[in-house]
Amino acid sequence: xxxxWSYRHATKDWQAFLSxxxxxxxxxxDNSTYTAVQGVLWTFRDRLSPxxxxxxxxxxxxxxxxxxxxxxxxxxxxxxxxxxALEEEARLVRVDHNLTPPAPISLVxxxxxxxxxxxxxxxxxxRIGPEARAFWHVENAYELERRIV
Length: 149
Known about the structure:
The protein is an all-alpha fold. Helices cover 59% and strands 0% of the residues. The relative contact order is 0.18.
């Protein structure tokens, strides 16, 4: 069996995603973008059971999957809360070096949806539940142009 595309081209996929996310944030720095993305991914991850974590990372590109899982230990899931509190939590990752604007979730969601097979991504979100669907919701998501590397 040949090596999967997502592993063979992981760096290209990551750079393309990072470029799209940086554009969404209007950041000049990859570092600021990385921190913003990390905060959003970890905020979401902290509300999932181990089974949901495993399911959610399946449709992600390889490097995003690794970032999502980085430092994770199975712990009781935090409760879902309102959007403003989730946004604030995402901004607290490396707070001394975090330039993330007040509403990062939708910006990461727009960039992420360009780099996943949306039907698979939505299927996973459906299994996780309504809070997961709301977290990653993007108006007219299927109109986003998929970034093929």
